[in-house]
Write a structure and sequence with these properties.
The structure is a single chain. By secondary structure, this protein is an alpha/beta fold. The chain is built from eight helices and 13 strands. It has one domain: 3-Layer(aba) Sandwich (UDP-N-acetylmuramoyl-L-alanine:D-glutamate ligase), CATH 3.40.1190.20. The strands form two sheets. A nine-stranded mixed β-sheet has the order 5-4-1-8-9-10-11-12-13, sandwiched between helices. A hairpin with a 5-residue loop joins strand 11 and strand 12. Helix 7 runs antiparallel to helix 8. The longest helix is centred in the C-terminal third of the chain and has 16 residues. The mean pLDDT is 92.
Length: 274
């Protein structure tokens, strides 16, 4: 059942391309399934959007758990590639409610690629999403060539000075960025992204909410106060809430609000999805 404040019409399909991993907290003796693509796909499905994931998953016990989580949330796994090897692991610790990333083992993701069949499958969706660590840049370019009308979105995280931004500007319709506050720099940055080809550029601003620009005006949205347990997944859940609402309504402000709502629910639990 969708978690949003309004019922979504589920005639739009979203494909997510990218990573999957395990966040392991040795000091706490716990771990959970995560990764930008997994978190976004699971949260989109929770929002009531038919969602597919295109990724490479290891055949070890962690990989089997990744598949179990995806299937339990009705994510389409028909284009998941299962290969022999180790699931990617990030060794984590906590400082209060903030996560601290430690050693990262890339595992089978080191050789993750997207083939022609993956690209054709993704091209049949209404929107394709990926992220900075998803290794899907060339696939996105090809998807846009095959289906120019398809919407694409990309999470650049906090890499605001990466050369990949200018490389992808003209191939991405909705760009997500992470920053700290509303100021002249971020307003100019978002404006420049739209001038360079994006339709909507969005900055999540932590406790200061979010800011979006669509070429005509800026939109601001605050956060929804909640008890913070773990900030892991806040960005991916915001993206899922935004995309789920935008593909069904086309309303930027409502989409920002839904992103804030879903993010507030996710940071109130330990896992990056519900």
């Amino acid at each position: 059942m969708a978690s949003s404040r309004f019922e979504k019409q589920c005639n739009k399909k979203i494909a997510v391309m990218g990573d999957n991993c395990i966040d392991l907290y040795p000091d706490l003796g716990v771990y959970y399934v995560t990764g930008n693509a997994v978190d976004t796909a699971v949260n989109l499905a929770t929002e009531g959007i038919p969602t597919s994931i295109i990724t490479t998953i290891a055949d070890d016990h962690y990989g089997r758990e990744v598949m179990e989580i995806l299937r339990a949330h009705s994510v389409d796994v028909s284009h998941v590639r299962i290969v022999h090897g180790q699931t990617a692991i990030t060794y984590m610790s906590m400082e209060g409610t903030e996560r601290v990333h430690g050693t990262y083992i890339e595992g089978v993701l080191q050789n993750m690629v997207f083939g022609e069949e993956d690209i054709m499958f993704a091209s049949g969706h209404d929107l394709v999403h990926t992220a900075f660590w998803g290794k899907a840049e060339e696939a996105i370019k090809e998807i846009k060539r095959i289906n120019p009308a398809i919407f694409t979105s990309y999470d650049f995280a906090d890499r605001l000075t990466s050369s990949r931004i200018t490389e992808m500007d003209s191939f991405i319709d909705i760009g997500f960025f992470s920053y700290s506050r509303k100021d002249d720099y971020i307003e100019h940055f978002l404006n420049e992204r739209v001038r360079s080809g994006m339709k909507i550029a969005i900055a999540t601003l932590g406790e200061n909410g979010s800011l979006a620009y669509d070429g005509e005006r800026f939109y601001e949205c605050g956060i929804i106060p909640t008890e913070v347990v773990n900030t892991v997944g806040a960005g991916d859940s915001f993206i899922a809430g935004f995309l789920a609402t935008y593909v069904t309504t086309g309303d930027v402000f409502l989409s920002l609000e839904e992103g804030a709502l879903l993010a507030s629910r996710i940071i109130s639990v330990f896992e990056p999805w519900i």
